Amino acid sequence: MLKHGGRLLEAAQQYQIPLSKWLDLSTGINPNGYLVPVIPDSIWQRLPEEQDGLIAAAQEYYQCQSLLAVAGSQAAIQSLPLLRPTCTTGIVTPTYAEHAYAWEKAGHNILTLAANEIDQQINQLDTLILVNPNNPTADTYTYRQCLTWLEVLQQRQGWLIIDEAFIDCTPELSLCKLAPLKGLIILRSLGKFFGLAGLRAGFVLAEPDILNKLQELLGPWTLSNPGRFVCTYALHDTAWQEQSRRLLQQQGLRLSALLTKYQLKPTGSTQLFQWVRTDHAALIHQQLAKQAVFTRLFNQPPSLRFGLPTDEADWQQLASALQILANLDIHNH
Predict the structure, then answer these.
(1) 231: confidence class by pLDDT, cuts 50, 70, 90
(2) 108: which residues sit within 8 A by CB, 6+ positions away?
(3) What average pLDDT does range 236-243 have in this prediction?
(4) Which of 238, 185, 193, 240 is nearest to 213 (CA)?
């Protein structure tokens, strides 16, 4: 099993600090997520139905007609490798580890690449997987780059899979409105920007043929009825979306400035998280955890990802922890 951020119960036990004391910055999920509407009893009592307005809301939000609702991006990540015969799959690393895990498990050959190696290697690949913006490095890819790679892959019936889990803050980077294009598969999630990770809700945007095969594999009712109800509300609420983009922009800059002040200048930034490369990552992670501040630790390369605090008290807790960390002077050890 791969480890993810958000394992707070485990950390609370490990460090013997009550759960209520923790500041969890390990996930990159919007801490001020969408406020879920009251769900009528009838929604809980009925099986999901396709005509409930969810797909229309998603088509409008993603500016794409050809899409499928799935139980979070994860459902698609695990299933897509099963829809292709054994092939060579290029994955830019470091990135969200579930992609490589799923393709390897399904028997495909994995070629791990740095972003600047894609152009040289693209002719060797049947499938290329990008996370845009990348998690955890925050690297982004342009329209031109993606479409150039897609053209090469199309010549051998290949796929370009783009995981856009963190793109909602910068929708101008998204390739959604170009879909469906032959061989282009885009994964979207309501977990990060909308802060609804617990819903397990997402969408796959692709040509109908791929979506039909995926739907057949996943079976009926991939999203619960209450989940569909909440998603439909969230996707329609453009006022909340615009306000959140502005707020997250400000908070991202504030977090970057705070980390920089304490000698943890981010190597990569999105509105939802800051990525800090440092040889002392493991030690810093541990020292912050002793003060009930939970970050996401990466070993390869040694680095930390910081998500956003929720409110002013959280910001103060983080600043205090960073001040204590600075006093330990880890960087000069």
Answers:
(1) very high
(2) 81, 84, 86, 87, 88, 89, 127
(3) 98
(4) 185
Domains of the chain with bracketed CATH: 8-34+239-332 (3.90.1150.10), 41-236 (3.40.640.10)
pLDDT tens digits, 117-144: 999 999 999 999 999 999 999 999 999 9
Rounded mean pLDDT of the chain?
Answer: 96
